[in-house]
Amino acid sequence: MSLNVRKFDAVIVGAGGAGMRASLQLAQAGLKVAVLSKVFPTRSHTVAAQGGVGASLGNMGPDSWIWHMYDTVKGSDWLGDQDAIEFLVREAPKLVYELEHYGMPFDRNEDGTIYQRPFGGHSANFGEKPVQRSCCAADRTGHAMLHTLYQQNVKANTQFFVEWMALDLIRDSEGAVVGVTALEMETGETMILHAKATLFATGGAGRIYASSTNAFINTGDGLGIAARAGIPLEDMEFWQFHPTGVAGAGVLITEGVRGEGGYLLNGQGERFMERYAPTLKDLASRDIVARAMATEIRDGRGAGPNKDHVLLKLDHLGLETIEKRLPGIREIARQFANVDPIKDPIPVVPTCHYQMGGIPTNYKGEVVVPKDGNPNTVVEGFYAAGECACASVHGANRLGTNSLTDLLVFGKASADSVVKYIGTSRTHRDLPKDAGDYTMARLARMDNQKDGAPQHETRLEMQNIMQNHCGVFRFPEMLSEGVTKIKEVAEKVAKVEIKDKSKVFNTARVEALELENLIEVARATMISAAARKESRGAHDRADCHDTPEFPNGRNDKEWHKHTLWFRDGDRLEYKPVNMTPLSAESIPLKTRSY
Amino acid sequence: MIDATELSRLKWRSRRGMLENDLVMERFFEQHTADLTPQRVEGLQVLLDLPDTDLWDLVAGRLQLGAGAMPATLEMLGWMRDCQLAHPR
Questions:
Q1: Dihedral sign for Cα atoms in the order A388, A390, A393, A398
Q2: CA gap A12, A34 in Å, rounded
Q3: N or C: which end of chain B has fewer CB within 10 A?
Q4: pLDDT of residue A1
Q5: Tens digits of per-residue pLDDT, A534-544?
């Protein structure tokens, strides 16, 4: 069966911050662009970003991109590529000023310059003292950014395809990417979007975990699509967790609650942080608190009928403090935990927040794969930016505020690369004859499946396995069991059955397609994590702890390298970390301590 | 009750950028699908067209609807606010 084909200069998948920054660049360059999005652009998950954009404007005191670079490399636990990090921090101020010019309502100083907030991990003079580097629009930075970019795109006549879901990448016999297949939800039609360049900006896949702060749309579609097309996924073992998300919901409870005197209890009513951090107790660093929580739950001391969470007690703070100092907490607890924290503790678990790994790219946003001995060979016609991409600037852990910086800088950079690639004369490469066959076979399999697994239950099973076996603190035996279990679930996903076969707005089909993307990310994560036998950044293993030989459990001799997971046979390869910045001096390996 | 395709469309358009709103809307449909009428859907649509941050502020009671709001919109916001967890832990 042949599919309808539509031709564009470029196709962008995803209309969050990265996708819309990229589309703006392409539309302004006069290219014919299609931007596909599952939901209306301003409802992308970028809207949830509160922390601000990190950029060394120096509005509050001396600052320098070199210091921002140092903080980012250190945050990454030296797994970030230093060429990409230099590019990120040097471009950041330009991108912030450009947004300001587009009308972004940044908070201001009295002299009219952009106000910058302090944020954890940002320092002046290589860790000497804190620096104010985060540019915000109240607590709605992501929202303001998304709306500003959307307005600019409307002005530039960007063509949005709303409620379209990309399904598969189309590659020709030479491996070049020549477009995607996509499903238009309103009609149920599948189409081929034939393009000179294809750019992924599909965001993260936080929904692989049972407890996640990510919105429901964050199903890692771009990663699943890339993996099925033979592109490896890089550093997928690294996920940033937040210690306190509401159990069963994922909604974030700010760390301010512990700052104000709230503390954690296990199922036996014990204030367990006293055992793990006798001095700082509940004010110990994020990693230590999350690790202690995970250990209590794993050792059977969790709370609730399934002993699967711990409790955050704050009733002793009193109504006035809670309402005044912790606005919104009471409403979150009431809505999502069914408790009033004035009387009862809030059930919480370590909760997945941000994906550091993704589709491997260079600092120009071009997708790169190992080929003929070069670990970073460019895949012709394929680009990625934002959380779905791994440039890699976040390495093993992301510095706060760098997610918005990342999507601006690499959204623009990847689009600049597209413009350069297309130039004035490039024509479309031919579509292969079988361009839509793979997608049609996947859809037919789904429609004809008998006695297969139900979507919803299979998704929950995957999420629970990821949460229990590959969460914030990782136990070797749980990881190896997790590998077996996630492969079993992957087999179920391959046979997922949908009861509703209707065409128009069939959300059951869309959710099953999302699950097929999620499972690729889950497999990549579990297998990459089980293999990396060290602790580094957000990958924290119980069997690799702090020793004089391996401070913080980090083993640079064997593991200072990027993981590449290939879907075919769950194969792993590794590639070196780039320690050579574009112009700055290299920041040599050092123990990470704050 | 509204027809199945319309309901699917409405549910999909309740997929939000913020998890808080996703969860509120998931519960809303679990508890109130059978009670939806064309008029109520119209009232709901007004809320769904709002930015995520405003929608959550309304649900959390930090923001109030203007005086000119449709009765159906007020009613739907009330339902969103009052939805309790279907499966309390």
A1: positive
A2: 6
A3: N
A4: 54
A5: 999 999 999 99
Which of A39, A185, A338 is opposite residue B85, by nearest beta carbon?
Answer: A338
For position B25, what pLDDT does the model report? 96
Span A346-374, pLDDT tens digits: 999 999 999 999 999 999 999 999 999 99
Q: How confident is the model at residue B87 (pLDDT cuts 50, 70, 90)?
A: very low
Instruction: Name the region of A406 (left: φ>0; alpha: ψ -120 to 50; beta: rest).
Output: alpha
Q: What's A194's DSSP letter?
A: E
Backbone phi and psi for residue B88, each to the nearest 5 degrees, phi listed first: -60, 145
Separation of alpha carbons A569 and A428, rounded Å: 33
Q: How far is CA B78 from CA B18, B49, B61, in A?
A: 20, 17, 10
Residue B60: which of A143, A328, A507 has the nearest Cβ? Answer: A328
pTM here? 0.96
Give the per-residue pLDDT at B84: 59
pLDDT, tens digit, 9 for 90 and up, residues A20-40: 999 999 999 999 999 999 999
Which of A217, A335, A346 should we substitute to test contact with B (largest number of B Cβ atoms within 10 Å)?
A: A335
Pairing relation of β-strands A53-54 and A129-135? antiparallel
Encoded tokens for A387: 């959380």
Enumerate domains of chain B plus CATH numbers: 4-86 (1.10.150.250)
Angle (deg, nearest 10), helices A507-531 and A221-228: 70
Burial class (CB within 10 angstroms; exposed 0-12, middle 13-18, buried 19+) of A451: exposed
- What token pair was written down for A519? 């499972």
Which range, of A80-84, A279-283, A575-579, averages the lowest pLDDT?
A: A279-283
Is A541 marked active-site?
A: no
